[in-house]
Target: Phosphate uptake regulator, PhoU
Amino acid sequence: MIAERRLEKIREEVLKLHDVAKRSVEICLEGLRGNDEIRRKLEDLEMEADIIHSDIDYDCVTFIALFQPVARDLRFVVGMMKTSSGYERITDLALEVGYYYCYDEELLSLFEEMRKNLLEMFKVLEDSYAGSEVGIVHMLKRHDNVVDECYEKAIVYLKNKCKVEPVLVARHLERMGDILGKIGSTVVFIESGKRIWIK
Model:
């Protein structure tokens, strides 16, 4: 059926955007030491994310206009628009992180712990897209809590040093965790119609 094919196309586009956002998080900390090649890759990923996000929005709005979906299909389309926005924002934040500089090993260690947990959150979401909702809320909360704890440690560490860029790196990485938690909430809402908060 035409409607199902269009929904599958939207799903595939969101999975592609998920992958782009994940790749941007994987490499963003490499830019902190002034790696211009990584910064160019982050710029390319951010541009790719913008294009995919725009395509998803167009496809979702077109689907709503053509098929006037209700119930699960409407939740899916609206949820995919929100999810797409979240992933696109993550690539923006990763690009910003890559533009900063940091040579403080203690901070880099905290940032690495944050990145590790963000990538685990991406993995939880990948599993949920493949049909496994087992523990999604608990697992996303657990990883987001670690990201939040690292953020708080970074802020305490930086309090006396007054270094602005590392504070922003910590904030952006923490924000990515919040966005991934919101995406997880959307996945649960699409499947069950239940509103949950992962924070």
